[in-house]
Amino acid sequence: MRGMSRIHKPNTHTVRVGDTRVLRHGRRQSKLRDPYHLVLTLTWPEFFGALVLAFVLVNLVFGTLYWLLPGSVANAHEGLFFDYFFFSIETLATVGYGVMSPASLAGHVVASFEILTGMVSIALITGLVFARFSKPTARILFSKRAVIRDFEGQPALMMRIANERHNRIVEASATLSLVRSEANAQGESFVRIHDLRLLRERTPVFALTWTLIHPIDTRSPLYGLNAAQLAASRSRILVSVTGHDETMAASVYASGDYEAEDLVFDARFVDILSTSPEGERIVDLTRFHDIEQVFPNAGVSQGIFG
Predict the structure, then answer these.
(1) Which letter does DSSP use for residue 260 in this model?
(2) Which of 29, 31, 66, 226 is most buried, with most CB under 10 Å away?
(3) Cα torsion at 143, 181, 194, 226 (round to 10°)?
(4) For the domain 140-302, what is the CATH code?
């Protein structure tokens, strides 16, 4: 009806922040405007699927052009589209088997453009595959849950990480942050990020496992909070690890996050380090995520840390 204002639905896109899925409204820029970033963020199955789709579409376009130009391809059956389609594949890959060939000026012109397209495509695909393979990544395993327990006379937040590769990450460093909703003096709600101090933020060599420990003292943003309060403020713990992978000779990065329900009070991680009868050190990653309850500390379980 004329005069009625149109209702525009917000443009919604999915953004992943760590393991969190966020819906963002109003983003107008298409992913196709940043194709390089898009290609690097695709999974390997998606990447090869996109290559196959592009390969088929390009050959369909050029095959149709040959098909629409009668007499453009020698030894092709007139009207049989598949002959022109497979001729396009041979031309794009510059392999030509010698049975079919361009037979007219129009056919030579289209074949020339297709050969150029094929050479440029091979160069681009080679670069993209190399960029994906050469992109440094870290294989760091984060414990599924974090624990809050009494440690050396005071409560502490702990999570465990492990290097899944059989190499070393040198000069590794870790940071821990608390993200939660807060209200200011005017009653406005906003999200604030607090840095959480670690007992050990750096390690010269990260080869096996590393337990990150944040002491919950009077300086900690977690001081005096219990599980219900953490959930009510939509608290989330963010952890990031950076270091230099000695095998790839490049800096690597990994991150994880924990929601309020992932924090377990009065619990500790099961010990996964042991020594064999021959004196060899054993790391049992099959129990990496296992935790066990400890004798409850009333102050910890109730959130009374003072």
Answers:
(1) G
(2) 66
(3) -60
(4) 2.60.40.1400
Q: What is the dihedral of CA 241, 244, 247, 253, to 10 degrees?
A: 30
Axis-axis angle for helices 105-134, 81-92 (nearest 10): 50
Of 192, 154, 159, 151, residue with least CA distance to 175 = 159
Alpha carbon distance 224, 226 (integer Å): 7
Amino acid of residue 219: R
What are the residue boundaries of the structural domains of the chain, listed by start? 34-134, 140-302
* Contact call for residues 249 and 200 (beta carbons, < 8 A): no
Cα–Cα distance measured from residue 222 to residue 262, given in angstroms and rounded to the nearest whole number: 15
CA 227 to each of CA 189, 222, 224: distance values in angstroms, whole numbers, following the listed order: 20, 10, 10
Q: Is the pLDDT of residue 62 over 50?
A: yes
**Which range, of 18-32, 53-67, 119-133, averages the lowest pLDDT?**
18-32
Tokens coding 129: 């595959």
Residue predicted with more confidence, 205 or 20: 205
Length of the chain: 306
Q: Convert the pLDDT of each residue in 281-292 to its tens digit.
A: 888 888 999 999
Architecture in CATH of 34-134: Orthogonal Bundle (1.10)
Asked if 290 and 270 touch (Cβ cutoff 8 Å), the reply is yes
Hey, how many other C-beta atoms are within 10 angstroms of the C-beta on 19?
12
